[in-house]
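SEVERITY: medium
COMPONENT: batch folding queue
REPORTER: lab tech (J.R.)

DESCRIPTION
The queue accepted two submissions in a row. Attaching both inputs and their returned structure tokens so the on-call engineer can compare them side by side.

ATTACHMENT 1
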Amino acid sequence: MNSAREYLQNIKRNAENTSPTKTVRAKVKGERHARPTLLSNFILGSQDGLVNVLGILLGLTAATTDIRIFFVGALAALGAESISMGAVAYTSTVARRRVYLKETNRERQEMKDVPEIELEEVRHIFGSWGYEGKELEDITESIAKNPKAMLEFMMSYELDLAPVDKPEARRSALIVGASTVFGSFLPLIPYLFVGRNILAGTEASVIFSGAALFFIGAYEAKTTVGSLWRSGLQMAAIGLTAGLAGFLIGHFIGALPV
């Protein structure tokens, strides 16, 4: 049996298919506010870690030739950034869950205190989807008879909120933290093979990081929607631009008289 959310989404699709002359003025809110996925959390952490460490390494390239400083700076950033990103993922997810629970309680109380107003809001939303006349009244009445479906309907389509499971905060923190470690380590890999040749390490790091960013963006497009080349190049351009900012800062600071 379909869940209440799937039932509501089917109603929305039916409205689009059975009322082709009507302009659908409301988007499917539940789809637009989907729960965070493994892919989105991985991209968030890996991109942030990679760009952050790459910027630091390029900044150090313009300021010093001591390879030990490169490793110390990169590893320090890796540790701090991974903990910070994991903590942010956890607290932000907890905050979203608290908001959802608070609004759920408020909406449930309103359904008891002012049912006529809530019913009118349901009718208005269905009307914006193209339902009218007897069909509009029947489907509104059908939802009103199912308090769970009506509550989920109002949370998704009136308040624009998606449910957040209790374990989701821990999952998000773990995925984002681990992917930040992964991304942070990527720009450092070329320096492991160039000895004390800082210039060669930097060039290899930029190429390697740019390729990694491209494949992350391309994989995102392949997994979701969009052009692989456009998404990959966009991701690489954003990351390398941020790295360039680190280089310029290091260059100008390094050029300052002591």
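ATTACHMENT 2
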Amino acid sequence: MEVGAITGELELLTRATPDGGIEAMVRYAGAQDLYTVSGSPVRGVAEHPDQAEHRAAHERILETLMTPGRVESGNEMPVDLLEG
């Protein structure tokens, strides 16, 4: 289910997928509902990432999500992991 832009205090959760990607999900701080981030899962991670590789991928995803999107017609566009 697509919910559109999610803003505010969020938590990022990442987990390895069986095919070697990293799935990225966010939720409002303290909430239970998780939303998959556009462009997830991220590819290009080791087939079975160790803890250090997973953490590095998590940090790259977090940095991408915290970088403001491009502005079009005075409005900030959503961030997509495929573009980051």
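NOTES FROM REPORTER
Residues 51-66 form the longest helix (16 residues).
No errors were logged for either attachment.
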